[in-house]
Amino acid sequence: MRTIIILFMLAIPFSIINIGCQDVEVGYLSTEYAGYSLDSLVINYELDATPPEEVPNPEYQMYLDMGFSPEDAMAVYTLDTENDYMSRFGAYLKAFGNSTLKWQNTYQLNLGVELHTWNRRLQFEFSYYDKLTNNTVAEMLLPISHGFGTAKANSGSIRNKGWDAKVTVNLFHNPNRGFTWSVTGSFNHTKNLIEKISEGYKKFLKELNSSMYTADVYYRYREGYSMDAIYGLRTVGVDPATGQRMFLTKDEDVTFAQNAEDMVYLGDRLPKINGNLSTNLAYKGFILTVGFGVKWGGKQFNSTLANKTENAYLILNQDRRVLSDTWQKPGDIVPYKKLMLNSASTNTFPCDAFVQKDNVFQCTNINVSYNFSDQFCRKLGLKGLSLGANLSDVFYISTVKRERGTSYPFSRNPNFFLSLSF
Question: Which of 46, 35, 41 is nearest to 5 (CA)?
Answer without folding.
Answer: 41
